[in-house]
Amino acid sequence: MSVFSIYIANFLLLTCYTITLWIISITSSKLRNMRLLAWAYTAALIAVLVGLAGRYPHKWIAHTVSPELLIISFLLLHYTFLGYVGRKPMWRWTPPAILALGLVGFLYCSLHVDHYLLRAELTAAILGLQALVCAFLLFRYAPPDIKAPTRTTAVIFMLFGLRGVMRCVWIAHYHIMPERLPGMGYAIAGVSAFLILNAFTPLGYLWMETTRLQKDMERLSATDSLTGTLNRRAFDELGLVEMERAVRHSLPLAVIALDVDHFKKVNDSFGHSGGDRALVEVAETVRNILRSADVLARVGGDEFVILLPNTSLEGARELAGRLRDRVASLEIELRNGRVPVAASFGIAAMGVHPLGATSVENWERILERADAALYRAKASGRNRVES
What we know:
This protein is α+β, with helices and mostly antiparallel strands. It folds into 2 domains: 3-221; 232-386, Reverse transcriptase/Diguanylate cyclase domain (Alpha-Beta Plaits, 2-Layer Sandwich). The chain has helices at residues 3-27, 34-51, 59-85, 94-113, 116-141, 147-174, 185-221, 232-249, 263-289, 313-328, 359-379, and strands spanning 253-260, 295-298, 303-309, 331-334, 337-340, 343-349, 385-386. The protein has a 5-stranded mixed sheet with strand order 2-3-1-6-7, sandwiched between helices. Strands 4-5 form a two-stranded antiparallel sheet. Strand 4 (331-334) and strand 5 (337-340) form a beta hairpin. The termini are far apart.
């Protein structure tokens, strides 16, 4: 395999990826920042095409424009990853400063010095540092539940960045580019580094995006769309896990069922928008008081359930009292009036488990007892706590 064949492979790879990324960016709106990635590959492809002009008389154009386009390509990759991790640029002047530094340096090397070593050092240093910044963004700010694709992509960029820095140091120390050494190994390795980076970056980014979409779908399937709390299915799954843990380690566990009082009257008086607003406010109020380990779920139209790991009946009763007072103090303002809100609470705690009872049976029983206590609270006048 020759350097020229790898160069042609890199050119063909960039062409295919550029076309594919533009098609994906146009047809898949859910994939974020794909258009930036497509522009990054477009800039890299043009850089390769312009680099061919180095064989012709006006080679200073190729020696200036081609590396400058590569810098633009890496800047676009930088902004692609910034958008992915949800960060804003730290300094707005950094991109124009990098572009200006590269342009001045490449023009100086081409027009006044024509020193290919200095131009190679400058290119390796700038591209290497840009790659290291991209790796840092993915290592530092990527979502923790998407580690595999982000860490893998970050490692590729980190290796490419370290390669650029080491290349710069090598040229500065030995005053020769590695590919000018005897044998083809160094030259092939240098060109292959770009080939590997160009081949993996779109795959890595698509891996990250599809993993993010999968996680979002999992969260949506487990979440109530109105209040943002868990739905009944996800709550039961989590409850079974906590029940098994409580039984295995002899830990207390409690459940609070709560129901918004006279919710039908709220809907009739203020419309469904008023009822929805009341549910959202109640859920937010309850969530702000709960611990991080506690779990709130909406299991019916106006009914919520709270799972309290490592909580006794007395602790659940004290919490329910505070929740009742806090909810009763709510008064939601709407265009057509104020919505008074109150709620009833039913409490059940884990008792002695009968021999042979499964976790499913124990979980169902504690929920039934919480529902029965909630029914007693509503039958006793509402806005009450019963256990």
